């Protein structure tokens, strides 16, 4: 089978796919993966042919634009249309050359879905966040102000949709692009138990569990309790890390901070607190007793897979949905007070109260029951 795969320039959307890509290529299928140079090495290591999308006026790579996308739907629509049209000629050439049997696209790499629509190819949505329909969308519910902004922006959105139709993309409106229905073949990298309202999704949705890579560099556990703190690869809130250090300075916990940035500025640390630019997160989580997290889907899932209860500090609506679900299932405590005293209180509550650990263990058991890459491969193979 020949597969064209499209993704956005984000670690959290690329990394979960790599195990499945490897599963498919080792089974003899060929994958052409449309992505960005920073991901070339890991994509090729998974056995796929890499096709660069850099240099095509791809504005979603701009971090300021990325922050605006979540707040301004007209702007987001303009960006996705511009990205699709910027890639149109290049994608057309490759599709003609590859002649794929199937297109797999990240749930927000809408140009992949549009390419499948344009060329009449079977389509699979790869969803590294929660799957959303009108029931689960309550986890990212918009207020009246957001709805009013959406209505005001509709003329701009319709103008962008017209640009797509003029280039041969058979779309009627924004919902055709951004919304999947129960007839959409979808792979979701979580369990039915963790997915909100999973009973409302059809059997075309395969909940294969989180993508967990093996521990590469083991980390020594040096105290009875280990606290791990990471705000992911995007957020660089130095002040928050400083407050975490202050909060845990006079404890006897082993504290590991993954900064996502140069950690040399964090000097004068006591021996039990270590700050790093990055860590082998699987190795750290395998010895962790409490994880202070931004609630990115991958990070939260990895923590729960290792049965680690969470202190929840989401930064975006998507992360807030993950936090809400973890909190609802009893596996995490939301950080309401971000002062040093508030951070310490939250950490100590999660460490002291056994119900958080028990809930994390239950979610982990659900993850481990999932069919994983094998189920996803067999599902994809069944479509051709």
Short description:
Helices cover 44% and strands 15% of the residues. It has 14 helices and 13 strands.
In words, what does this structure look like?
- This protein has 384 residues and is an alpha/beta fold.
- It folds into 2 domains: 2-128 and 134-179, Rossmann fold, CATH 3.40.50; 226-368, Rossmann fold (3-Layer(aba) Sandwich), CATH 3.40.50.2000.
- The chain contains 14 helices and 13 strands.
- The strands form 2 sheets. Strands 3-2-1-4-5-6-7 form a 7-stranded parallel beta sheet, sandwiched between helices.
Q: What does the main sheet amount to?
A: 7 strands, parallel
The first-to-last residue Cα distance is 8 Å
| Strand order across the largest sheet | 3-2-1-4-5-6-7
Along the chain, the helix and strand elements come as EHEHEHHEHEHHEEEHEEHEHEHEHHH
Strand content: 5-15%
Strand-helix topology:
Blueprint: E1 2-6, H1 11-26, E2 30-35, H2 40-45, E3 49-52, H3 63-69, H4 73-98, E4 102-106, H5 110-119, E5 123-127, H6 144-166, H7 174-178, E6 185-188, E7 205-207, E8 226-230, H8 238-248, E9 254-258, E10 273-276, H9 281-285, E11 290-293, H10 297-305, E12 310-312, H11 317-328, E13 332-334, H12 340-352, H13 354-369, H14 372-382
Parallel strand pairs: 1-2, 1-4, 2-3, 4-5, 5-6, 6-7, 8-9, 8-11, 9-10, 11-12, 12-13
Features of the shown structure:
384 residues, Rossmann fold, 2 domains, elongated, alpha/beta, 13 strands, 6-stranded parallel β-sheet, single chain
